[in-house]
Amino acid sequence: MSKILGIIGGGQLGMMITEAAKTLSDYIEKIIVLDPTENCPAAQAGAEQIVGDFKDKKAIHELSEKSDIITYEIESGDSDVLKSVEIKSEVNPSPETLKIIQDKFLQKMFLSENKIPVAEFIQIKSITDLRNGLNEFGYPSLLKARRDAYDGRGNFKINSYDDAQKAFDYFNGKGLMLEKFVPFKMEVSVIAARNTLGQIKTYPLVENIHENNILRETIAPARVSKEISDKAEEIAKNTMKVLKGAGVFGIEMFVSKDDQILINEIAPRVHNSGHHTLQSSETSQFEQHLRAILGLDLGSVKLVHPTIMYNILGAKDFEGKYETIEISESNVYLKMYGKKISKPQRKLGHVNFVATERESVEDLLRKLDSLKDKFQIRPAT
Ligand code: AMP
Hints:
The chain is of the alpha+beta class. The protein folds into 3 domains: 3-91, Rossmann fold, CATH 3.40.50; 120-180, ATP-grasp fold, A domain (Dna Ligase, domain 1, 2-Layer Sandwich); 184-375, ATP-grasp fold, B domain (D-amino Acid Aminotransferase, Chain A, domain 1). It is 28% helix and 29% strand. The chain contains 12 helices and 20 strands. The protein has helices at residues 12-21, 41-44, 57-66, 79-84, 95-102, 104-113, 127-137, 164-170, 226-242, 277-280, 285-294, 361-371; strands spanning 3-8, 28-35, 48-51, 69-72, 90-91, 121-124, 141-145, 155-158, 176-180, 184-194, 200-202, 206-211, 214-220, 247-256, 261-267, 307-313, 320-321, 332-336, 341-342, 347-354. The strands form 4 sheets. Strands 10, 11, 12, 13, 14, 15, 16, 18 and 20 form a 9-stranded antiparallel beta sheet that branches. Strands 3-2-1-4-5 form a 5-stranded parallel beta sheet, sandwiched between helices. A 4-stranded antiparallel beta sheet has the order 6-9-7-8, with helices on both faces. Helix 4 links the parallel strand 4 and strand 5. Helix 1 crosses helix 11 (285-294). The longest helix has 17 residues, at 226-242. The radius of gyration is 21 Å and the shape is globular. Bound molecules: adenosine monophosphate.
């Protein structure tokens, strides 16, 4: 039976889910998104839109009245409200899972209780807790806001005893945790899917390069040994087994200098580091997410072509309309998100560099380097 799907959030992730839904038209009748920006990216791709805040109770209820299944492309939705609409529509991933993931401390507790490797951490309620924690973990250590922090904005790196008070005051009474610093050699991630029937699949490990805490490049597959990628996929599978609910999850990890794999953070949604799957893989992460929440068999996660994804980000010191970006190169796929206004570091699009049979990841990196300038955001004239 064909379903109506409601999505909390209609940004680029909602847009690419909406586009993927077109290939599953036998199962999906319509997509409705809840988003505060009129004509949001998902609406431009054909979704119906309720204009409203992601946390607006009334709007979430309206969305659930109209939808058979609710999912989300952002993790800041109100999990209690989502729980309350479960009687009207299925919500996936489950609001219980969302509640755990939204709080970095609860997330790490959950993972460590389930024997999934994470960096050492403790909850911080007072400056005394912080000083004790620093004595135990040493320097540097990271003080993190437990909630509502993404792209590194909720982290304070403490380099010495003298920084402790400043770091504590910076968060102004927010719930906090302290984490031991991991001297990693690489940041990696696994896109994992679990459908409503419990079937689990993981995409091959990818390598992520960040700039100012924002993802800049993803290299698929990650340049690591088979042992490391197998281990990371196994950790991702074990994580999916213990997390309730269905959907695609982005599982971010560190590969430490001594080749340990530790989970840094889980996103209960399709993930920026999975955008390469649009061209590299037999099934895109967006289609996979739909298959997972619809209870269909999961698609093949085979990586057919090595691919590099490069994010197109708003220039640091500019806000306003920007020049159109165009590229016509074989095996280079540009995807802009239809956002009219650029803001510093705003994700405006991405580009996938797909390898031919004769090209290696190193060739792709050289190609990206030679074309990077074309993807810089410039003010419209
Ligand atoms: P987060 O917002 O917590 O995911 O952190 C943003 C970035 O900070 C990560 O992508 C890492 O580069 C860095 N980071 C976070 N936690 C740690 C850690 N325990 N050790 C070293 N770097 C970290």
